[in-house]
Design brief:
The structure is a single chain. The chain is α/β, with parallel strands linked by helices. The chain is globular. It is built from 11 helices and 13 strands. The strands form 4 sheets. A 7-stranded parallel β-sheet has the order 3-2-1-4-5-6-11, with helices on both faces. It has a domain of 193 residues: NAD(P)-binding Rossmann-like Domain (Rossmann fold). The longest helix is centred in the first third of the chain and has 21 residues. Helix content is 41%, strand content 18%. The two termini are 32 Å apart.
Length: 308
């Protein structure tokens, strides 16, 4: 079986390839980020890695020939420019679906997001809804997975970035009191779910995949600080001040690691549906503390840093 992963040089893609290489599958990835594709090639010399922008039609389409399953991971997560979200979440998906139809690929696994169940209304949420609608109306045999906040090896934006930030500054700010609930999902567990979908391919089903353990954001940050031996002093600052400082940061940084829109989503005290994905996909979840230890203490993969 030949699997093609779009956006394969990011957090989920890098971890998924590590999982699938043990299953005797033929793998290819497409990703537009040249530095992260270079890291991927160094780690996975036997996997075909195509560097290309899926929002622009081009020679990348020929790599869909003789593919059995497409795992669609490409997404614009952060940034302040709506056009980037439109291109990478909507236009790229239109092109991928068209390529699937051109080469008669019926099996598509789409990684959506729990934000579609959220009250958030930012660029990411708006375009991810459009992306999911494209899949729902594609006519393909799809499986849609909606994960909550993920963490693990190769995490360049979320908890991985926060852990590195914490090591480099004396004071670590928390918006408000930090008492908003998170349901973090270990990316290794999520990759097991994707593999289960590849193996059994439930058709035209949609699953909300939430982390099974709840934790306050501030407690999650304290746990990361402890595991990484960071010496930053954690302190809380008013939400409006935090928002203003991020706004100023965004003026001077065209590709900020964290935006005001992401902050607004972060502080929503929402709880997402927890289905019994453990039995549904026959995956044993990793306890949260063990998952954090694997993420931040691994001698090899915890030290690999992807780029924005």
């Amino acid at each position: 079986m030949h699997i093609l992963i779009t956006g394969g040089a990011g957090l989920v893609g890098q971890n998924l390839v590590l999982k699938l290489l043990d299953q005797n599958l033929k793998l290819s990835i497409i990703d537009k980020h040249s530095k992260n594709v270079s890291i991927f090639r160094d780690l996975h010399k036997d996997v075909t890695a195509i560097e290309s922008d899926l929002s622009i039609k081009g020679n990348w389409e020929v790599h869909f020939e003789k593919i059995d399953v497409v795992v669609m991971l490409h997404a614009q997560i952060g940034g302040n420019n709506f056009i980037d979200f439109q291109k990478n979440n909507v236009e790229a998906t239109e092109n991928v679906i068209q390529a699937c139809k051109q080469f008669n690929i019926s099996r598509l696994i789409h990684v959506s997001s729990s934000v579609l169940e959220s009250i958030a209304n930012d660029f990411y949420t708006i375009t991810k809804k459009k992306q999911e609608d494209l899949v729902l109306n594609s006519g393909l045999d799809f499986t849609i997975l909606r994960p909550t906040l993920m963490f693990g090896w190769f995490d360049r934006k979320h908890l991985g970035w926060l852990s590195r930030f914490m090591k480099n500054i004396p004071l670590f700010p928390i918006p408000g009191n930090g008492k908003f609930v998170r349901q973090p999902l270990f990316v290794s567990d999520f990759c097991e779910i994707i593999y289960s979908c590849i193996d059994s391919m439930p058709k035209k089903n949609l699953y909300n995949i939430s982390g099974i353990e709840e934790i306050f954001y501030i407690d999650m940050i304290k746990l990361i600080r402890k595991l990484t031996n960071a010496r930053s002093i954690i302190f809380c600052i008013p939400f409006r001040l935090f928002h203003f400082l991020l706004y100023i940061w965004g003026i001077f940084d065209k590709n900020p690691p964290f935006t005001t829109q992401q902050l607004d989503s972060l502080v929503q005290n929402e709880k997402f549906e927890l289905i019994d994905w453990m039995d549904e996909f026959n995956v044993k979840p990793t306890p949260l503390i063990k998952a954090f230890e694997k993420t931040f203490l691994d001698e090899k993969f915890s030290k690999i840093k992807l780029y924005f």
